[in-house]
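> example.struct
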């Protein structure tokens, strides 16, 4: 990809951001009129359009100069939550104290993100979703690739929101809203206060530095509760969840109390006799344990189909009853990871925070996931398998689950109708699967 094109797009983007920060919508319309008038009004002998050029120029210049009179000194404190959910409006309170000696009115507030334009290495190595379907000119120019990168780097939307009058030496509180666009971390550089000039064409912005971060959890969908025919399984050695829940077997012996043992198992007579806590020891217990397998093997660092797969995994996890079963999340990022939720283990909020930081596995093989699942398969009563492709390596895992009679709900994420139709025909006819098209998530996810 040409470095000259990259520099052109970079400078163009900076100009667009500068114009957006200095001119209102009406001001940008005047700029457009100014350009048209300049183009068609050069010959003053044959047209009167030059008069429009003169009027528009004078108004813009006066407005631009007037906007520089805006000076303000404030102290801003946000009451931001630690987390929010992608796609859901985030509302929070902001306290603003006017430290100056002048009352300000018609002030607009906007959150300012720490925007960093893509580097040339990112631009040249990035591949847009569906880029292969574009014509040769668009692929060579790479402009849509640039726009896609800008969109990916845009983590939230926030419009200018008008504040109450800021009286000198007084503090006000206002409710601010922004819309998180995707999971991950929102880095807020500070708050921007702006004042529009009397003509409504230009505006002056003042950046108040107040860095803050908010973790954005994956987008959640309404999904039905999944049921499996798998029975409860024996867990050798007993884990904390097995000690607290399930079907207790016969009494074995007494032993000394260890940290984490339930108080209900303390033998008070033996404790009084020995002088230290003694608990009753039972055989290990049986309970249900399900696996939620997330396919993270994508060739690109960002993929919309992978983002939707993470949302499906989060939605399924949040909608299951974790009081009577354990749900294990399997995924591979920089390393193979297994997390468990339910029955006294990690809570759902913590699991969502983990999913908010999941990355793709660009240079790893799906066989690592297969090996991870095989290692834990003897403990699983059922599996939810979320795939974003259906190649031979993934089919190997599906065949393994079938061969070992592990109940499974297979979910295949697609970005076009019938993408895997030919491949899914090779699956066992008794093995149910659901295709979810990322272009109609709300409709397809209800079919689970």
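> example.seq
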């Amino acid at each position: 990809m040409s470095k000259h094109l990259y520099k052109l797009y970079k400078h163009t983007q900076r100009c667009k951001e500068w114009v957006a920060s200095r001119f209102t919508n009406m001001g940008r319309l005047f700029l457009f009129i100014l350009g048209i008038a300049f183009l068609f009004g050069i010959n003053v002998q044959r047209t009167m359009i030059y008069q429009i050029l003169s009027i528009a120029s004078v108004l813009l210049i006066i407005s631009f100069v007037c906007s520089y009179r805006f000076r303000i000194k404030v102290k801003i404190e946000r009451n931001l939550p630690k987390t929010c959910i992608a796609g859901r409006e985030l509302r929070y309170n902001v306290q603003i104290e006017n430290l100056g000696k002048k009352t300000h009115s018609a002030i607009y507030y906007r959150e300012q993100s720490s925007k960093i334009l893509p580097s040339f290495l990112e631009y040249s190595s990035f591949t847009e979703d569906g880029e292969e379907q574009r014509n040769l000119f668009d692929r060579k120019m790479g402009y849509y690739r640039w726009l896609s990168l800008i969109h990916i780097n845009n983590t939230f939307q926030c419009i200018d929101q008008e504040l109450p009058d800021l009286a000198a030496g007084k503090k006000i509180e206002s409710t601010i809203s922004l819309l998180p666009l995707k999971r991950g971390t929102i880095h807020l550089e500070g708050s921007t206060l702006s004042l529009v000039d009397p003509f409504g064409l230009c505006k002056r912005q003042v950046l108040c530095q107040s860095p803050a971060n908010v973790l954005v959890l994956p987008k959640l969908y309404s999904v039905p509760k999944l049921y499996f025919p798998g029975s409860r399984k024996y867990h050798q050695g007993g884990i904390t969840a097995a000690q607290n829940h399930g079907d207790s077997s016969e009494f074995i012996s007494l032993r000394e109390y260890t940290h984490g043992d339930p108080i209900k198992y303390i033998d008070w007579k033996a404790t009084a006799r020995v002088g230290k806590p003694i608990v009753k020891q039972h055989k290990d217990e049986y309970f249900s344990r399900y696996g939620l397998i997330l396919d993270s093997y994508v060739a690109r660092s960002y993929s919309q189909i992978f983002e939707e797969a993470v949302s499906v995994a989060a939605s399924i996890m949040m909608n299951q009853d974790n009081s009577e079963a354990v749900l294990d999340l399997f995924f591979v990022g920089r390393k193979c990871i297994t997390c468990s939720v339910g029955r006294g283990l990690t809570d759902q909020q913590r699991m969502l925070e983990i999913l908010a930081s999941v990355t793709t596995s660009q240079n790893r093989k799906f066989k690592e996931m297969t090996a991870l699942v095989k290692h834990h398969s003897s403990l699983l009563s059922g599996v939810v398998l979320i795939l974003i492709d259906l190649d031979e390596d993934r089919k190997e895992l599906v065949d393994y689950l079938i061969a070992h009679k592990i109940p499974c709900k297979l979910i295949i994420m697609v970005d076009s109708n019938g993408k895997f139709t030919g491949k899914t025909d090779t699956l066992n006819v008794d093995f149910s699967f659901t295709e979810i098209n990322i272009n109609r998530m709300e409709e397809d996810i209800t079919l689970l």
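> remarks
Confidence is low (pLDDT under 50) at residues 236-250.
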